[in-house]
């Protein structure tokens, strides 16, 4: 991807509300050039969606989020893709990643309660053919997401210790 478009992607990733006019000013380009580049990036599915990061701890409508490690046996000829597709089609599933290491897929899901998440794992995920095992981790608190820190910062009151 050309450097100009990459700069636009970086600026929109940082703040998706930036207008083409503002981006043009920041890059020293014309608004028309920026608007055309954004249109091309959207058509090529480089830019897929503009999203908002929400600090759910500050909202009464809290959700339960779980990360599930899934070990699977790959399907002959399709590898991990067919099973990953079966999993990501469930509406509870927010993300699915192919991983290296002790497990194959990392699945992020959201539910209203712990029981709802447990039901998904036991009734939908675990019974899938080729799923060997699952290990569920519940997110207790988010400190940072997508580069955004959720904590209100206090001044660092630790004493400096020098040798």
From TrEMBL:
InterPro entries on file: AsnC-type_HTH_dom, HTH-Siroheme_Decarb, Tscrpt_reg_AsnC-like, Tscrpt_reg_AsnC/Lrp_C
HTH asnC-type domain residues: 1-81
Keyword Phosphoprotein among UniProt keywords: no
Sorted UniProt keywords: DNA-binding, Transcription, Transcription regulation
GO terms for MF: sequence-specific DNA binding
Record carries keyword Ion transport: no
Family annotation (SMART domains): HTH_ASNC
Entry superkingdom: Bacteria
Record-given protein name: HTH asnC-type domain-containing protein
Protein's organism: Paenibacillus solanacearum
